[in-house]
Design brief:
Helix content is 6%, strand content 32%. With 881 residues, it is mostly beta strands.
């Protein structure tokens, strides 16, 4: 698609919730779209182009391959929609998740224990799975979920803070991990930092401004991080930093400084009691308690990104403040002679002073104090340049954060230094609002590591750069899909999308540790490179003892080859995992973002795997393939079967997909239309779907379910808090009887996101409805209502609230258990109502992690839970009631 026709989706409102909560921010950070998407379809395209170049026959490049999206747009759009489900129809007040966690903890327990089945290595390059939509052979190796922050010391201790699965510790220079924050009410990490006394500081609340990031409960400190674990008692100060995100923690002048989503704060490092001091907020009226606190824009009116403290004068401090998509307050601030924070308007050298050019910023200081470095993402570039949002990388050779600063890198230069991102529309820094880290080698002030989508290194203060961690290996001549060669002559790289970095030592040798969307990787600080400048010595530290995988879905079926079951699931930026019953390592048979999943209970290798926007791929052999489809298209064993709403973009980012409970060959999918196909896993084309109902322009399905030919569909449209509307449509799989349910205006079913159905297997007119978001006590939006679980016995015509003692927490999905009970997945765990009872119990004990989907196993007695941050868990449900 040519540049003039690129589209950018804008959202002008935002919402903010509370402790352990989701931060919903505008999608204005989306980059310009282009015709080279990065995700599940990319390997097919690259391989096809490679094959065509040698005159061979290549598989057909599908419409989805040639769409106008790219990963930057997908991250922003997916984040936006994830947040809409929890915030629409309005703004959610601080305190909602904190109250829900307290209420959930006080529920009676069903007993029983959850078992994590994904706590083993997950090999994204597994040679068994190199079918047409796999990213295997890209070079990322073993992966886990997104890491937001890193810290390391000189005694071999490494600390990794995940997006939604808490903080983990290694005592052996990486690997053999242990969770150390499970007792906290927030498992979302914003910042990790070791102070001069060896204490580990944790700022909760991930600050990527990616809206599947959750807000935090404050800052915590561990006096003995080698042995201790975080607890509520280790919180610093009071509740001033609850319901914020923490971008960075910096130390100087006897203080710890916190750059947060609600301004810059400080606290004594000697006395941990007492309140945090608000040092600077550019728009204090938008802070909690302020006159504009309920304004839809409040969540991004006081965003602080980093703090730079002059090593020669700790009283001289520079604040980097600003919203990634631009605002009048964006800029660098310091105190004037009168002690007032003022914006620096000149004298910075190359570092911009114009608000349009200052967005997400990260600082790094050399150990000897002779250098300061900075990465700057530009709102102007983000909003006008489809190739990159990066303004540049800079150095202050005076060692002062006030400069003067000199630009030492831009996106064109980085692209020319061995990057894999050289295509117009997707170049280094295209996601600089989401991906950033920066650190300086303690032993060499000119040796710097910078992270954007890739990892870059300079050893001469920025005169030259190398892409030591390229996005992937597919675009390089050394790449090969041959399983015997893994990636050909290419070395392992890191996963893409960098967020955290640290340098530490183990057995006297220094290593750099990076955290990204695929987990944690390390290499020697002075490591080796090949002729292209790519590192040859990256090691994945995702050994299976650390499980922070962010699942959207789970599927379970019998493993007919090895016995037992095969378990699959769709993941944020880590494709689709597959765990066969004989596996000691999970594989990945599908790349990009993995969405919803259908698995044949009778045969776990019959799979329908969703990418995004209803881009569905089906396989009947678990997508086992050695890559031979590249030279012989007939050897591909995965088939694109997307219904038409995928091509038109009229489906949710993670769109609903379900099989009829009585007839697994009948599938239902939801976009603007309700689609039905009756060929089961034998479907081979998107043309086999039939539209049985048009929900209407502007509407899109949020949940579907079917049993015995009866179909339920929930929808929203608009789906954000600007005129949010929702509804339910009911009809038959053959296209007859379709109608919209008239939901009563009395709020019996709240005007919130309808997230899931569970149909009684004995009676298709008996159905349960799970409702997301928060009740009107917390949500300032029209018709927010109360309740999260509703029941209908007349096919959806009338509904009854059965929430009773259920905590006020977003509900994501529900299943009817074999004994007639009801299990519900929430943002803080799983609850259960026994048959014939009205009260809810907590199922087992999980950390404060979102459970997005529940599925029963083929044995009828095992429940599988897909968590968005701690992998897949199972629990036995036999006999409960």
């Amino acid at each position: 698609m040519s540049a003039p026709t690129r589209r950018r989706r804008w959202l002008t409102t935002c919402a903010i919730t509370a402790t352990a909560a989701l931060v919903a921010l505008p999608a204005g950070a989306a980059s310009g779209q282009n015709n080279t998407p990065f995700g599940a379809r990319a390997l097919a395209r690259l391989a096809a182009e490679r094959t065509q170049s040698v005159g061979s026959v290549a598989p057909k490049v599908t419409a989805e391959d040639d769409d106008d999206g790219n990963e930057a747009d997908e991250i922003a759009e997916g984040a936006d929609q994830y947040a809409e489900a929890r915030t629409s129809p309005g703004i959610v007040a601080p305190g909602a998740y904190g109250a829900a966690w307290t209420d959930l903890s006080n529920l009676p327990s069903t007993g029983g224990s959850w078992r994590n089945i994904t706590d083993l290595p997950y090999n994204s390059d597994d040679a068994r799975y190199r079918d047409i939509d796999s990213n295997s052979s890209g070079g990322s190796g073993k992966v886990t979920g997104r890491m937001a922050a890193m810290a390391a010391d000189d005694h071999g201790y490494v600390y990794a803070g995940s997006a939604g699965g808490g903080v983990w510790r290694s005592r052996s220079g990486g690997g053999h991990w242990q969770p150390i924050s499970d007792r906290l009410s927030s498992q979302s990490t914003g910042a990790l930092a070791l102070d001069g006394a060896g204490r580990l500081w944790l700022g909760t609340g991930e600050a990527t401004t990616n809206a599947d990031a959750y807000l935090g409960s404050g800052v915590y400190v561990l006096s003995d991080p080698h042995h201790g674990t975080f607890s509520a008692r280790s919180r610093v100060g009071g509740d001033e930093l609850e319901s914020t995100t923490v971008h960075e923690l910096r130390f100087g002048g006897g203080k710890v400084w916190a750059a947060t989503s609600e301004g810059v704060w400080s606290h004594s490092t000697k006395t941990l009691k007492g309140a945090w001091k608000l040092e600077f907020a550019p728009n204090p009226d938008y802070l909690p308690g302020g006159s504009l606190a309920s304004d839809p824009s409040a969540a991004y009116k006081n965003i602080a990104n980093d703090i730079a403290i002059d090593p020669k004068d700790p009283g001289r401090v520079v604040l980097a403040v600003g919203w990634r998509s631009g605002d009048d307050y964006n800029g660098f601030y310091t105190k004037d002679a009168g002690g007032t924070w003022t914006r620096i308007t000149s004298g910075l050298g190359d570092l911009p002073a114009d608000p349009d050019d200052v967005g997400n910023v990260t600082f790094a200081r050399s150990a000897d104090g002779s250098r300061y470095y900075a990465v700057d993402q530009s709102p102007e570039q983000l909003n006008t340049n489809p190739d990159s949002g990066l303004e540049g990388i800079y150095v202050s050779k005076s060692g002062s954060p006030t400069g003067p600063w000199t630009k030492i890198a831009d996106y064109q230069g980085l692209a020319a230094d061995g990057s894999a991102l050289t295509t117009s529309g997707y170049m280094p820094g295209v996601q600089a609002w989401y991906n950033q880290f920066l650190t300086v080698d303690p032993a060499n002030a000119d040796h710097v590591y910078a992270g954007l989508e890739e990892v870059y290194e300079t050893k001469d203060g920025g005169s030259t750069w190398s892409t030591v961690g390229p996005y992937w290996n597919f675009s390089f001549p050394c790449w090969s899909i041959d399983p015997a060669k893994q990636t050909g002559d290419c070395s392992q790289t890191t996963h893409s999308d960098q967020h955290g970095v640290a340098i530490g030592s183990y057995h006297g040798r220094s290593f750099v540790y990076v955290g990204n969307d695929g987990g944690v990787y390390k290499r020697p600080v002075d490591g080796s490179q090949d002729a292209s400048g790519h590192a040859t010595d990256w090691t994945s530290l995702n050994d299976g003892t650390i499980d922070t995988l962010q699942y959207y879905s789970v599927g379970v079926g019998k493993d007919l080859t090895y016995g037992g079951v095969s378990v699959t699931g769709g993941l944020q930026d880590n494709g689709q995992s597959i765990l066969r019953s004989n596996d000691t390592v999970m594989g990945s048979d599908f790349g990009g973002d993995g969405g919803d999943t259908l698995t044949d209970p009778a045969n776990g290798c019959n799979l329908a795997e969703e990418y995004v926007y209803l881009a569905i791929q089906v396989t009947q052999n678990c997508a086992v393939n050695d890559g031979s489809w590249i030279t012989d298209a007939t050897k591909a064993t995965s088939y694109d079967v997307a219904p038409a709403d995928n091509a038109t973009g009229e489906a949710r980012f993670i769109a609903p997909l379900a099989a009829d409970a009585k007839n697994p060959a009948t599938w239902v999918a939801g976009g603007r239309h309700i689609w039905v196909q009756t060929h089961g896993y034998a479907i081979r084309s998107g043309d086999e779907w039939k539209s049985v109902y048009d929900l209407g322009a502007g509407r899109t399905a949020t949940a579907v379910a079917a049993s015995g030919g009866k179909v339920y569909a929930a929808w929203c449209g608009p789906c954000n808090n600007q005129g949010f509307a929702r509804g339910i449509s009911v009809g038959n799989a053959d296209g007859s009887g379709w109608h919209d349910i008239t939901l009563p205006v009395d709020g019996t079913v709240p005007n919130r996101y309808l997230s899931g159905f569970a149909i009684d297997p004995k009676n298709a007119d008996h159905v349960y409805l799970a409702v997301n978001g928060f009740s009107r006590h917390w949500t300032e939006g029209p018709g927010a209502g109360v309740g999260h679980v509703f029941e209908s016995t007349d096919g959806g015509t009338t509904w009854k609230d059965i929430s009773e003692n259920l905590p006020d927490v977003p509900a994501n999905s529900a299943v009817v258990t074999p004994n007639g009970g009801l299990a519900v997945a929430t943002d803080l765990g799983v609850v259960y109502r026994a048959p014939g009872r009205t009260q809810w119990e907590r199922v087992g004990s999980l950390p404060a992690v979102a459970v997005l989907q529940l599925k029963p196993g083929p044995d009828g007695s095992t429940l599988y839970a897909a968590t968005h941050g701690r992998g897949i868990y199972t629990i036995k449900m036999r006999g409960r009631g």
